[in-house]
């Protein structure tokens, strides 16, 4: 049996992109930071997002059934911490500029890429809900650098430039 802390210490060694997941609709506007995001299939274009059921934002996401995965750029470290818990929702959204695409979920205007999605399926595993999300619209900023969360810290990920 692997203990929780031992598991977390091991998972801290997996570098991952950092994303702010947003939603808006009858369940209200909400957003949180997530590293547990990955591509599932391109037909139909589907990502998954793992959301802790105890998070304050959980009800808004399951009610609205739409969300946007905003993948962060290197300049977004403090924004990631703001959406990483405990800060009031109004204060989280006031710290950046937002637009809308198809679903009405907030699109972070300078995100590396934004996947505007409808939630097609939800499966519960342990403490988390896995939200399967079909992308209905996309927006990219092709000149931005990336941001990776690795070893409990943020690291900029530089795009290769011509030499
Ligand atoms: N999947 C999740 O729910 C994640 C939650 N977090 C939360 O962010 C805060 C800071 O995290 P770290 O600095 O990375 O240190 P940490 O020691 O709390 O977590 C290390 C790694 O373990 C995994 N992890 C942490 N909490 C988890 C959870 N409840 N369920 C599944 N996997 C989990 C993640 O891969 C994380 O990067 C913590 O409160 C943590 O709970 C962070 C990453 C993923
Ligand atoms: C780098 C980082 C990655 C995170 N990844 C996830 C994640 O994948 N899934 C999740 O449920 N929470 C994740 N969290 C925690 C949520 O962002 C946090 O619980 C959320 O903002 C809700 O907090 P609240 O209950 O105070 O509103 C992460 C936090 C940080 C800082």
TrEMBL record:
<protein>
    <recommendedName>
        <fullName>FMN reductase (NADH) RutF</fullName>
        <ecNumber>1.5.1.42</ecNumber>
    </recommendedName>
</protein>
<comment type="function">
    <text>Catalyzes the reduction of FMN to FMNH2 which is used to reduce pyrimidine by RutA via the Rut pathway.</text>
</comment>
<dbReference type="GO" id="GO:0042602">
    <property type="term" value="F:riboflavin reductase (NADPH) activity"/>
</dbReference>
<dbReference type="InterPro" id="IPR019917">
    <property type="entry name" value="RutF"/>
</dbReference>
<comment type="similarity">
    <text>Belongs to the non-flavoprotein flavin reductase family. RutF subfamily.</text>
</comment>
<feature type="domain" description="Flavin reductase like">
    <location>
        <begin position="11"/>
        <end position="156"/>
    </location>
</feature>
<dbReference type="InterPro" id="IPR012349">
    <property type="entry name" value="Split_barrel_FMN-bd"/>
</dbReference>
<dbReference type="InterPro" id="IPR002563">
    <property type="entry name" value="Flavin_Rdtase-like_dom"/>
</dbReference>
<dbReference type="GO" id="GO:0010181">
    <property type="term" value="F:FMN binding"/>
</dbReference>
<dbReference type="InterPro" id="IPR050268">
    <property type="entry name" value="NADH-dep_flavin_reductase"/>
</dbReference>
<dbReference type="Pfam" id="PF01613">
    <property type="entry name" value="Flavin_Reduct"/>
</dbReference>
<keyword id="KW-0560">Oxidoreductase</keyword>
<keyword id="KW-0288">FMN</keyword>
<keyword id="KW-0285">Flavoprotein</keyword>
<dbReference type="GO" id="GO:0052874">
    <property type="term" value="F:FMN reductase (NADH) activity"/>
</dbReference>
<keyword id="KW-0520">NAD</keyword>
<dbReference type="GO" id="GO:0019740">
    <property type="term" value="P:nitrogen utilization"/>
</dbReference>
<dbReference type="GO" id="GO:0006212">
    <property type="term" value="P:uracil catabolic process"/>
</dbReference>
């Amino acid at each position: 049996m692997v203990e929780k802390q031992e598991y977390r210490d091991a998972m801290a060694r997996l570098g991952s992109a950092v994303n702010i997941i947003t939603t808006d609709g009858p369940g209200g506007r909400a957003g949180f930071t997530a590293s547990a995001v990955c591509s599932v299939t391109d037909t139909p274009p589907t990502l998954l997002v793992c959301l802790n059921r105890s998070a304050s934002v959980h009800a808004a996401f399951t009610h609205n059934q739409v969300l946007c995965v905003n993948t962060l750029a290197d300049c977004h470290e403090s924004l990631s911490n703001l959406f990483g818990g405990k800060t009031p929702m109004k204060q989280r959204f006031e710290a950046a500029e937002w637009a809308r695409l198809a679903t009405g979920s907030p699109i972070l205007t300078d995100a590396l890429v934004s996947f505007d999605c409808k939630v097609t399926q939800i499966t519960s595993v342990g403490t988390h809900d896995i939200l399967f999300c079909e992308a209905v619209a996309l927006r990219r900023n092709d000149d931005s650098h990336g941001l990776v969360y690795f070893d409990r810290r943020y690291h900029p990920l530089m795009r290769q430039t011509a030499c």
